[in-house]
Write a structure and sequence with these properties.
By secondary structure, the chain is α+β, with helices and mostly antiparallel strands. Helix content is about 55%, strand content about 15%. Strands 1-2-3 form a 3-stranded mixed beta sheet.
């Protein structure tokens, strides 16, 4: 009897590999033992392990989308100081993070303001919330995107690059505004960020 159980376990492991169900493969022995002890019906056992697989897939998807998004680290809606920027409505921002109406319509969202006003923080936080709600986001400097597209055009790969960008629901473009600064005896230098979030 034990030999049959060992064969079944080994076969199940191979089948789960073939079906690409790593979470079920990992957790099925633990769930099977619990189901045997507690006398679960087969449907309950299947529901438990498939729920776990779906939750794990969702976690991995969010992890993958966060990595590709290149958002600013630590910038969340919880850490944004809404009270410091009273003209920004927290309720409106929370509605924006659902993304379902404005992203599907292809609408744009532009953030303007003086340096240090929290534009990058807010844009990144909105991007994070959208990823957590199932949307794909890319955060990049406008100049970097333009340079990348110019390079891919030169290399005759522009169509492929545009197709990759088209997979994102939202592009958050950080525009570097130019402000002249001169020091004594030094040439002009340029700095000061301003952001735009565009679909």
């Amino acid at each position: 009897m034990k030999t049959n159980t060992t064969v079944d376990t080994a076969k199940l492991s191979l089948l789960l590999n073939e079906l690409r169900l790593p979470a079920i493969k990992l957790m099925s022995p633990q769930f099977a033992e619990q189901a045997d002890k507690e006398g679960w019906p087969a449907a309950r056992f299947l529901a438990a392990i498939t729920e776990h697989e779906l939750a794990e897939r969702d976690r991995r998807r969010i992890e993958r989308h966060l990595a590709e998004a290149r958002l600013l680290p630590g910038k969340t809606l919880d850490t944004f100081a809404f009270e410091a920027v009273p003209m920004i409505s927290k309720a409106q921002v929370m509605a924006i993070t659902a993304g379902d109406s404005w992203l599907e319509k292809g609408a744009n969202l532009l953030l303007f303001g003086p340096p240090g006003g929290g534009k990058s923080h807010l844009a990144s936080a909105i991007g994070l919330a959208l990823i957590e709600n199932g949307w794909r986001v890319l955060f990049t400097r406008t100049t970097d995107l333009v340079q990348k597209l110019q390079t891919t055009r030169r290399d005759l790969a522009l169509e492929s690059a545009l197709a990759k960008l088209d997979k994102f629901h939202l592009l958050i473009l950080r525009r570097e505004a130019m402000e002249r600064k001169r020091g004594p005896g030094r040439p002009a230098s340029y700095a000061t960020p301003a952001n735009s979030v565009a679909d």
